[in-house]
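hi support,

uploading two proteins for the ticket. first:
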Amino acid sequence: MAEKLVIALPKGRILKEAMPLVRGAGILPEPAFDDSGSRLLRFSTDQAHIDLIRVRSFDVATFVAFGAAHLGICGNDVLMEFDYPELYAPLDLGIGACRLSVAEPAGMAKDDDPRRWSHVRIATKYPEVTRRHFAARGVQAECVKLNGAMELAPTLGLASRIVDLVSTGSTLKANGLEEVEIIAEVSSRLIVNRAALKTRPEEISGLIDRFRAACEARHAA
């Protein structure tokens, strides 16, 4: 009997948008999945050969790239940061829409032009994407890696600018920051481990088709 297929799902905001697609693809998790008090991280489903795991969004790509999960859902911001060659992203799910942006204090932004920068110090969860983005136009980016509370960095003198995900911009505004440049538009993708696709092509291709149909049904609704 083949090992179970494992699908890695991201905790947090995107999970709420992803689950209608998971269910639309015909995968129904056990009741504990929807129990906010449950400490479980791995869940069975009504498909005997499919389990779900729930991990940090940044870790979804790592679980799938290293074969611990066979498929997953994560933002293309994560794919850009890690750039794992083991991953194949066949489907844009059209959820989790936001943007990866550069922001700085509103007072500084009034007279600032990113095209004139030659060296910047930036607090970010995305050091690789940030360095590549600025290096492409000859700007040296010194990155301070943070995993959260990015908006505090400028006010506390850690870095004058940040690179972070922006949805409505309300968090930036509340902390006196303003977007000055968009690095990339972001949405969530279905990702697949390339080796698993080669060894279990029918199963995984079938799941990709089911997710594609769920996406089409969602957009048609």
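and the second one:
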Amino acid sequence: MTLTRRFWWIGVGISAFFAVLAITTPFLQTLGLLRDPSLFLDFPIHVPPSAEFWFGTDQQGHDVLARVVGGVGVAWQVMLLAMALSAGIGVPLGLISGYGGGWLDRGLVLVMDALYTLPGLLLAITITFIVGPGVVNAAIALSVSYVPQYFRLVRNQVMALKNTPLIEAARAVGASPWRIVGRYLAPTVLRSIPAILTLNAADAILTLAGLGFLGLGVPERVPEWGHDLKQALDAFGSGEAIWWTTLFPGATMTLMVTGLSLMGEGLNRE
């Protein structure tokens, strides 16, 4: 097994662990094995890790373990919805633009290039101000910056393939443009999507944390790592060494992003 393949399997294992954790979190809360992450000032503040609070508590009396685990599910929800929206919009537009050409292609390229030049976090902040906070709205804000990537990738591949002998033969026998795009071009082009999808998923988690750190993205009562890191930063002003409120959310986010990145790099090198 090559080194790249090993890293890919490591990424799959890490991502699968977080996926299972996100799915089972509601059951753990129902069984009483995990506290409600939205409980506010129900516990003493700034309690260090102990047998009662494994990850300690923060300055708002939240159980840090409950917030960290609850943040896994929120990250998956926003990430999956953002990837579905961005790929669901960018891929069809890339297929249509690359095969059809003409004024529609020029217009779409102009719009996508304009979006592509904007920093992802800045664009997400702007969209969030327009649509407001929330899981769905955060996914919409994140997806806008990823649509141009799918569009450009798919369009360039379609333009390289649409004049090949196979496509010319399909035209010669009377196949409609929709049939050519759907049956011959789309299956070939879609093979390159999983690699960029996983890399964008990793980036989406970091961007979501950036929104949360700025007080945007999802409501404060919803467990989200960026917001928790912002609360931890505010607590540093007290002069106390409250390391657990930073370590556990940051380490969990880093591990999840690393898993998705390893998957993406493995697929990209295949």
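thanks. also noticed: The chain is about 75% helix and 0% strand.
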